[in-house]
Amino acid sequence: MNMLTDEWKGQVVVVLGLARSGVAVARLLFHLGAKVTVNDRKPRAESPEAEELEKLGIPVICGGHPADLIHEGVDLLVKNPGISYTAPPVQQALVHRIPVVTEVEIAYRVTASPIIGITGSNGKTTTTTLVGRMLATGGIPSRIAGNIGRALAEVAPEMGSEEWLVAELSSFQLKGVQTFRPRIGALLNIVPAHMDYHGDLIDYIASKEKLFSNQQPSDIAVLNWDSAECHSAAEKVTAQILWFSRREPVASGVYIVDGRVMVRMFGEDAWELMPVSDMHLPGVHQENGLAAVAIALATGCPKEAVRHELATFTGVEHRLEFVGTKRGVRWYNDSKATNAKATIAAVGSFTDPVVLIAGGLDRGVDFKELVPVFQKLKGIVAYGEAAGVLLARAKEAGVRSRLQVQNVEEAVAAATTLVQPGDVALLSPACASWDQHTSFEERGSIFKQAVHTL
């Protein structure tokens, strides 16, 4: 452990929720001398993680929340980010004025590492992954953790002061922080989401903005110039701000102008990083690339490494992932798009003609919300259980080229009859994969293999 602390030694701590982060933070606090009890409402038979903790001597209570779990003698409640603040143990802790935090807060307090925190409604994983690649290529010591890979509480204690901890952070995680201070904090965008958890948009935005609440003037905030919500957040930021924009030049940050990715760091002269045409990230996802550039350069990462990774990065696997160009047609794998909203975002990322491949499990969804975006399509190939209703919506939208096939492999072959050089062929199913596949990953892999064999 690189930053020893006796802050929790002898304290009574309840960890609410097992899963990956719960196990990690329970182990950490136990090794730091806390008296830890873990509680999960799932039955013991559905909680295999419990055995690992019990072998260490940590009590684990499964199958519900005991009435006496939270009492005045409890010093701290660490809850799994996904557990609602309306859960009885959380409500009881708040009544007793017991601090309620998430794993992020604990990880921050035990690490010597400077932290890069990345949040936003969309694009977190893509941006975090790209930053990690840029730093690795540039020889900047770093590790990725949080919603990607290992839990923060598992990684943070291992890291030294010369390593950057690159953390993807959700609003659920950030809502439960108190002193957390990232050296670089990035807010990519804000659109209404998770209202069932936060209750309203105000709480959702406030949770995102907690990323910046403890930053100092020497820290850096990376914000989206093209987002009104980010401008509102900027009014509360005390750190130096680097903006990113697809639309216009910014005083300090990364932006696109005249088909070029330009950089101007804190008042320095602007310089060109690369042509936009060298990027494989499409449409709105270019924002993620610009944010990653700003973050990486702020760490001192060499511009050559930043340029190389931005030019070669094809996206996170199965998330609008660039597969390759075949006979002048660009193929993209967005197999993770298991609902209509995700497919709307994917199609909207392109300005070139799109032939869409969609289909999968029929959950009784009518897909009416897809009609406006279907109006932009050059053609559609539908497969699987939901093919019929998808084609009906495509007909309603006026899509002339409509084909139905049995599976993904046949869909790739059929799509080749509809595309021309300069077009985009996009797998964005709008459906779960379970009618024919065990996962969206399997579906995406089959799609890529079919494209590679064209």
UniProtKB/TrEMBL annotation:
Gene3D superfamilies: Mur ligase, C-terminal domain (3.90.190.20), Mur-like, catalytic domain (3.40.1190.10), NAD(P)-binding Rossmann-like Domain (3.40.50.720). Keywords: ATP-binding, Cell cycle, Cell division, Cell shape, Cell wall biogenesis/degradation, Cytoplasm, Ligase, Nucleotide-binding, Peptidoglycan synthesis. It is an enzyme of class 6 (ligase). It comes from Marininema mesophilum. Its main location: cytoplasm. It is found in: Cytoplasm. InterPro entries: Mur-like_cat_sf, Mur_ligase_C, Mur_ligase_C_dom_sf, Mur_ligase_cen, MurD. The lineage of its organism: Bacteria, Bacillati, Bacillota, Bacilli, Bacillales. It catalyses: UDP-N-acetyl-alpha-D-muramoyl-L-alanine + D-glutamate + ATP = UDP-N-acetyl-alpha-D-muramoyl-L-alanyl-D-glutamate + ADP + phosphate + H(+). Cell wall formation. Catalyzes the addition of glutamate to the nucleotide precursor UDP-N-acetylmuramoyl-L-alanine (UMA). Its EC number is 6.3.2.9. Coiled coil: none annotated. One of its GO terms (molecular function) is ATP binding. Belongs to the MurCDEF family. Residues 318-431 form the Mur ligase C-terminal domain. ATP binds at residues 120-126. Residues 118-296 form the Mur ligase central domain. This is UDP-N-acetylmuramoylalanine--D-glutamate ligase.
